[in-house]
Amino acid sequence: MLLERAGKRKECANQILKELSLLERWSRIGEVYVVGAYAYDLMVDYDIDIEVFCDKPSANQVFTMLAEVADHPQIVDITYHNYLNESFNGLYFKILFKNDDLEVWNIDMWLFPKSHKGPLSRDLVKDMQYSLTDESRTHILSIKEELSKRDLTCPSIFVYQAVLEDGIENNEQFYDWLADQDITQWTHWKPERKGEKHNGDQKAD
Question: Would strands 203-204 and 31-35 be described as parallel, antiparallel, or unpaired?
Answer without folding.
Answer: antiparallel
